[in-house]
Amino acid sequence: MNIAQIEENLQKLIKSFKKERFIYDFLLAFNLPKSSITRLQAGSLNMSKLPGEVSWKRKVFFKELDTEDLHEVAAKIKERIKHKQRFIITTNYTTLVSIDTKTDEKLDIDLGELPKHFDFFLPLAGMEKTQYRDENPADVKAAEKMAKLYDAISKDNHDDSPKFTHGLNVFLTRLLFCFFAEDTGIFKDNQVTNAIGSQTQADGSDLDSYLEQLFGVLDTQENERGDLPAHLESFPYVNGALFKERFIVPKFSRRSRQVIIDSGEMDWSDINPDIFGSMFQAVIAVDQRNNLGMHYTSVPNIMKVIEPLFLNELHEEFEKAKSNKTKLGQLLQRLHKIKIFDPACGSGNFLIISYKELRRLEMKIFKESGVMPLSGIHLSQFYGIELDDFAHEIAQLALWLAEHQMNVESYKEFGQTNPTLPLGEAGRIIQGNACRVDWEEVCPKKKSDEIYVLGNPPYLGSSMQNYDQKKDIEITFKGFKNYKNLDYIACWFKKGADYISNSNCNFSFVSTNSICQGEQVDLLWPYIFNKDQEIGFVHTSFYWSNSAKHKAAVIVVIIGVRNKCEKQKLIYTNKHIKHAKNINPYLSEGPNITLPRRGDPISQIPPMVYGNKSTDNGQLFLSPVEKEELLLNYPKAARYIKKLVGSIELIRDIEKYCLWIDDERVSEASEIPFIKNRLNLVKEFRLKSKAQSTIDYARYPHRFKQRTYNGTSAIVIPRVSSERRSYIPFGFVDDQTVILDSAQAIYSAEPWILSVVLSRIHNVWVKASSGRLKSDVRYSSALSYNNFPFHNITKQYKEELTQSVFRILEEREKHSEKTLAQMYDPDKMPEGLREAHRQNDLAIERCYRSKLFESDEERLEYLFKLYERMIDEEKNAGTLFAKGKKTRKKKANA
Q1: How far is CA 811 from CA 104, 248, 836, in A?
Q2: Using an 8 Å Cβ cutoff, are 175 and 303 in contact?
Q3: 647-674 per-position pLDDT tens digit
Q4: How far apart are CA 227 and CA 209, in angstroms?
Q5: Among 19, 23, 27, 107, residue whose Cα is nearest residue 71
Q6: What whole-number distance in Å separates Cα of residue 258 and Cα of residue 282?
Q7: d(CA 577, CA 596)
Q8: 3-class SS of residue 533
Q9: 117's torsion region: left (phi>0), alpha (psi -120 to 50) or beta?
Q10: Residue 193 three-state SS
Q11: Secondary structure (H, E, C), 282-336
Q12: Least-confidence region, from 327-331, 535-539, 540-544, 765-769
């Protein structure tokens, strides 16, 4: 049984609800054997003989109640069950409480919400819950606990004012600290949870006033507290401003109080503060939980940023300094002065991991040098900017927790460490808009300061930005041309370049690869290079994973930028590291060139133009059926019909036609009623347009509004193609075919041109230089085709390429029952076609050099060097032409 069926079954159960059959219908919903449930109902499988109870070995212990506390009863049943029942369920038929005895998870819901929580009971259907192998299960469970607590409190407090929301955010961070503190030796074991359980009413009515008093105690030094009950007096003074501000504590019900107690009973000592980003994702408003602009970054991905940015160098220095106390002392001083700054810090993941790694290196130095092992690395060395209020609060809390964990780690190693309480400053994290805040005001810098700026800013392409984000870009890129075409993350690269200019600072951000593709390269990177900066390292495109419950699935790059220096430059590709002389903005080895939009090809190849745009509301188009009916009734209409091909029509082999009427034949064509009606509809549509140019063109309803068709055969270039394909499936069409504007065209092209654009080396260039539509390649004639560097070749080479492309077309014909989409699926490509393309690739690459290329990276390197050479030749030719023109003018004047 699939999940959808289970959910549907539970929906039916709730709609036709009957108390006496509830538990049996519930079990049937999970496709448990009907015969077994019949026996259970009859009593032979029921191991309990008490009324209102059903006990099925290894499956479920069910108990219906009237007035008793559902949680308390469920907990008692768990203590005494003997037959390994997986689920304990208690209900009063208004509320349902359940415990999963294997995972110790708890469910507390209104009975009507049961279908939404079907996944809790999936083990009944033989579907075990997801095991989080890459993360500590305690981290994931903590995130889900906080989401549940947030929901319960929100249900009890119908107030969404900014003041209340901020107060709730602060309250949750304080509660998180208390849970962590009572499980890690900062407080006594379970001190807070036990106090809530024993000192407050079960209905939650006095919990708010109790917690308000407790938070006040935690912010008051012991000698200033006055007379307090013993259970409050025993709490230590915390400080660190965590409990300083006074906010209204939310109200609680029986359920939300119980959720707090359940959360406190979990062992929080095993959680990692760097998982708090995942907690944040789980805790914020339910309708946003699956659609976040930010993503929690896993530790391995954070290490991909901080290792090449600063950590590897520090470890190398440590290895060189071993056995030299003076150098070890100098390295220690360096660690105590380094600043780490994340201007999109979220809940602090990058700062926390950076802090932990610096502390661990410091411990190695202590061990090697034998100096007093008291840390000189302070949270005040860590800076951040975060727009979201709750994430900002969590970031500060997480840094405190990270400091305590590292103190514990240090104590285990050396037997002494810095005290955790009272808390010190929790990093310099400010709430604000990083695009509008002056970064130097947040993290002041002197020329000699060693500062590393890092993080995972929000991505958001131009079409996904809201008004405020568009305004951020406008402010950041004031004076830039075409800045509206930049992704939102470009703001961080521009501000990062400004911040590190003329200083001992570097920056590295996780980014979508879009800022290294298409027109964004030429819009952004010249600004950075003109500041005398360079790319120091890069992780080329890789799939992103994280520890959030709903994992992000995006392709990213990591780019490190620095002021020019003699240090090595590194390109990380999968598990390989390559040393490069220079890394260009397309993230390959080569000169710092950017490809501008060009109006004509740099190589000796024919021009590529847009297809034909109708702007007619589809009235000039004909389906195969409409075409046949028109010809059946009016055979002379054949002279006004042409085949129509766009990207989809070519790739998926979709048959389509259009009316194509020359100016001198409009009157003649209009004698056919069908055509006359269609032309009238075109005119009406264009007259209703808001664009004046379209209104003006209503005078010519027989024409496509934008026309490039010239009555010759052509190569069709789809404007969008799947990222997965090794080759973009271009095609030939005859002189009676009109190419739509969803594609581009090379008219009157010799066959060898198709060989060139079908090649692997051309596809590698296109993927690097064109933009993307989602993850698909968006082929740009101005960027990719017109800038494509290709040698002038001899007639013999052209003949060889012509034969090569004919072999490809022949192989396509052998599979004429398949579409190009099917033939060019990399997993299903026919072997003959694959081999024909391989031979074509070899032929094309011989046009470049005799030694074949070993990788796509090598192909791209070669192309950029050739492009640079061709640009220089073009400039020199232009200079010579200008000089010659000037000389001729002087002679003429003489």
Answers
A1: 60, 74, 7
A2: no
A3: 999 999 999 999 999 999 999 999 999 9
A4: 17
A5: 107
A6: 19
A7: 30
A8: strand
A9: alpha
A10: helix
A11: HHCCHHHCCCCCCCCCCHHHHHHHHHHHHHHHHHHHHHHHCCCHHHHHHHHHHHC
A12: 540-544
Is the model's pTM score more than 0.90?
Answer: no
Cβ density class 45-59: b for 16+ within 10 Å, e for less: bbbeeeeeebbbeeb
Give, to the nearest 10 degrees, the angle between helix 349-369 and helix 312-321.
0
Cβ atoms of 718 and 651 within 8 Å: the answer is yes
CA distance 659 to 627: 10
The confidence score (pLDDT) of residue 547 equals 47
Distance CA 109, CA 349 (A): 32
Reported as a single tens digit per residue, the pLDDT across 398-421 is 899 899 989 999 999 999 888 888
| Strand, coil or helix: 885 | helix
User: Which has the higher per-residue pLDDT, 782 or 299?
Assistant: 782
Q: Which region, left, alpha or beta, applies to residue 617 given φ > 0 means left and ψ of -120 to 50 means alpha?
A: left
Residue located via tokens 């209204």: 248
Alpha helices in 713-830 (DSSP H): 751-757, 760-769, 795-813, 820-823
What are the CA-CA distances from residue 433 to residues 339, 389, 499, 536, 711 (Å)?
Answer: 21, 11, 16, 27, 56
Alpha-carbon distance of 851 to 330, in angstroms, equals 50
Tell me which H or E stretch contains 109. strand 106-110
Token digits of residue 872: 């220089």
What is the mean predicted confidence (pLDDT) over 731-741? 96
Pairing of strands 339-342, 106-110: unpaired
Quick: pLDDT tens for 757-783: 999 999 999 988 987 766 788 899 999
Amino acid at 875: K
Q: What is the chain's length?
A: 894
> Percent helix, strand, coil in the chain (nearest 5)?
50, 15, 35
Q: How many CB atoms lie within 10 A of CB 863?
A: 25
Alpha-carbon span 645 to 472, nearest angstrom: 41
SS3 658: strand
Q: What is the DSSP string of 165-178?
A: HHHHHHHHHHHHHH
Distances (CA, A) of 95 to 251, 254, 260, 711: 20, 12, 18, 74
The pLDDT value given to residue 278? 55
CA distance 563 to 536: 9
- DSSP for 857-873 reads HHHHHHHHHHHHHHHHH
What mean pLDDT do residues 22-36 have? 95
Indicate the residue type of 592: N
Task: Report CA-CA distances (Å) from 305 to 92, 256, 559.
Answer: 53, 40, 8
How would you classify the pairing of strands 714-718 and 576-580?
Answer: unpaired
Residue type, 102: K
Task: Give how far the C-alpha of residue 822 lies from the chain's centroid of Cα atoms, to the nearest Å.
Answer: 29
Q: Are strands 339-342 and 609-610 parallel, antiparallel or unpaired?
A: unpaired
Mean pLDDT estimate for the chain: 89
Angle between helices 490-500 and 467-476 (to 10 degrees): 30
Ranked by mean pLDDT, which of 118-132, 282-296, 421-435 comes out on top?
A: 421-435
Instruction: Identify the bridge partners of residue 747 per DSSP, sorted by sequence position.
Output: 714
Separation of alpha carbons 133 and 141, rounded Å: 13
Which residues are CB-neighbours of 196 under 8 A, at least 6 positions away?
207, 210, 211, 257, 260, 261, 264
Rg, C-alpha atoms of the chain: 35
Q: Which two tokens stand for residue 613?
A: 């745009």
Distance CA 253, CA 809 (A): 73
Distance CA 339, CA 751 (A): 60
Two structure tokens written together for 258: 């119980």
Residues 475, 363 contacting (CB under 8 angstroms): no
Residue among 496, 500, 493, 555 nearest 524 (CA): 493
Peptide bond into 591 cis (omega under 30): no
Closest to 353 in 3D by CA, of 289, 292, 307: 307
